[in-house]
Write a structure and sequence with these properties.
By secondary structure, this protein is an alpha/beta fold. It is 43% helix and 15% strand.
């Protein structure tokens, strides 16, 4: 292993991340009883300019008056290029001890995160805030993706990154048809077979971006979270997108509609078979250590240190779900 050891972000259950507009108090009340692991109350894209100040007031009341249970509560502030951002941070952080995290949109360079960190740090010191806030950043522009590794090390508050596919597609001028979906034109054509027939194989236009962000997160101890799937009337499409990310190593996915919450939780919950195997790996490791054996094997296969760490991470996640 490298001599450089990276500290892992604050562990949180993060299978589903529900977006709730701050301009709708009814939606906020309903979301509190949902199965979402993480909820972000939105001040940005889901709120019209004329409603920004009212949404801020709504969110302060909701965070202070609603019982959110054990959910991780987050706000998505407006962008650093707007005049709404500083009041989003100051008003809500000063007034809401229940707040756990801030979601920073359209992060392009490390200095964007640094700016919010300075502001939050001063508020925490001035108000003697006991709970230190965490950050999640949205990588949703070409600039952000180009600087994703540097952004990953921009603040000790940083816990997670989300891939914002809609704005990323716009930034890259991609011809997306459904937010988070695929395009039949993004495909490859096979050579002709003996009968002259050719087949078309659809490709995933987001694979490179998702993998690059994933690697940056895992290299620097952050949680990688996939962003929205726009067609909430297509549960199969949502589930397919979630499974692709889960198999690659993502920890969760956004839900822009309550119907997507349970889909995300199911996909990103380890199966009983996976948990059982992970426990067996750890038992085999303990038995080998007691016997003084350097090599660890299970079911005829050698278990390396990577397998052990993967098993430990899976068990930790399973225990967090049991506690919930």
């Amino acid at each position: 292993m490298s001599f450089t050891l990276v500290q892992q972000a604050t562990p949180r259950l993060h299978r589903s991340e529900l977006a709730v507009p701050g301009s709708n108090p009814t939606f906020m009340e309903k979301s509190a009883t949902s199965n979402a692991d993480v909820i972000f109350l939105d001040l940005e894209d889901a709120v019209a300019p004329d409603d920004k100040e009212k949404a801020r007031t709504n969110i302060i009341a909701a965070l202070n008056d609603i019982d959110w249970g054990t959910k991780t509560m987050m706000i998505r502030i407006n962008g650093l290029d707007t005049h709404y951002m500083y009041r989003d941070v100051v008003d809500i952080v000063e007034a809401c001890p229940r707040l756990d995290m801030i979601l920073i949109p359209k992060v392009g360079v490390p200095a964007d995160v640094y700016a919010i960190d300075v502001l939050v740090t001063q508020i925490e010191q001035a108000k003697k805030r006991e709970k230190k806030l965490g950050f999640e950043v949205l990588i949703e522009t070409a600039l952000g993706m180009a600087n994703v590794e540097a952004i990953a090390t921009s603040s000790k508050r940083l816990e997670a990154m989300s891939f914002g596919v809609a704005d990323y597609a716009a930034s890259c001028r991609a011809r997306a048809q459904v937010i988070g979906g695929v395009n039949p034109d993004y495909s490859v054509l096979t050579d002709k077979d003996e009968s002259g027939k050719r087949e078309t194989h659809w490709q995933d236009p987001w694979l490179f971006a998702q993998q690059r962000m994933l690697v940056a997160c895992r290299a620097y101890g952050l949680r990688p979270i996939d962003g929205p799937f726009g067609d909430f009337s297509d549960p199969d499409g949502y589930t397919s997108a979630a499974r692709r990310c889960a198999s690659a190593g993502y920890e969760g996915k956004w839900a822009i509609h309550p119907s997507q919450i349970d889909l995300a939780n199911e996909v990103f919950t380890p199966s009983e078979a996976e948990v059982t195997k992970a426990r067996r790996i750890l038992v085999a490791m303990e038995d080998a250590a007691k016997a003084g054996r350097g090599a660890v094997s299970l079911d005829g296969r050698l278990i390396d240190i990577a397998s052990i760490r993967m098993a430990e991470a899976l068990i930790e996640k399973a225990n967090a779900m049991s506690a919930k």
